[in-house]
Write a structure and sequence with these properties.
Blueprint (H helix, E strand, L loop, with lengths): L5 E10 L6 H13 E9 L11 H11 L6 E6 L3 H7 L4 E6 L2 H18 L2 E6 L9 H9 L10 H16 L1
Parallel strand pairs: 1-2, 1-4, 2-3, 4-5
This protein binds 4'-phosphopantetheine (PNS).
The site of 4'-phosphopantetheine (PNS) has 11 residues, from β1 and α4.
């Protein structure tokens, strides 16, 4: 059965995306099928300071990874997510949930974003295949010399591995 969609509605998928993983792409692709447009918005998470890639590089990699969806654009934002969503006339935010810890982290933000501006958050359960994949574990595997090709888009694996090795060599 086809899912009901909201073709005129634009949503934002925000995140750090350092780097984008197949789990992120699963959520972005499913949002693109449900809504008219998706803005993938790269924001700085103030609690994560030791990034592997700069914001411009993350955008570059997302553009490459999202090129097959013609209703997905990649952008950056600073400041409050609610202000960005208002400026971009987005109807809501789509976030993937892998497990209870994600829910505990996301729910307060969803509550406060809605209290601040009425912004809705739509949670999509991650696909089982990607339910344990995170950017932080991908970074760790790559820095320690492991194979990340199962977890990130094929076209980006070599770039992520090279940066991680560079970082590991100091
Ligand atoms: O991928 P991440 O690290 O979970 O992404 C977190 C991000 C950047 C989406 C989140 O930190 C965010 O929304 N930051 C914007 C600042 C903001 O609006 N803070 C108030 C939240 S109630």
């Amino acid at each position: 059965m086809a899912l009901p969609t909201a073709p005129g509605t634009r949503v934002v998928c925000p995140g750090s995306f350092d780097p984008v993983t197949n789990g992120h792409l699963d959520v972005i692709g499913r949002a693109a099928a449900l809504f008219g447009g998706v803005i993938v918005a790269v924001g700085a998470n103030t609690s994560k300071r030791d990034g592997l890639f700069g914001i411009d590089e993350r955008v570059e990699m997302l553009v490459e990874a999202c090129r097959s969806w013609d209703n997905v654009e990649v952008d950056t934002f600073t400041g409050l997510l609610v202000d960005y969503c208002t400026a971009r006339e987005a109807a809501g935010v789509v976030k993937g949930l892998r497990f209870a810890k994600d829910f505990d982290y996301e729910l307060p933000m969803a509550h406060l974003n809605r209290q601040m501006s009425g912004l809705e958050t739509i949670f999509l359960p991650s696909s089982q295949q990607w339910g344990s994949v995170s950017s932080s574990l991908v970074r760790e595997i790559a820095v320690l010399g492991g194979d990340i090709t199962p977890f990130v888009p094929e076209a980006l694996a070599a770039r992520v591995t090279a940066r991680a090795r560079q970082r590991a060599e100091g």
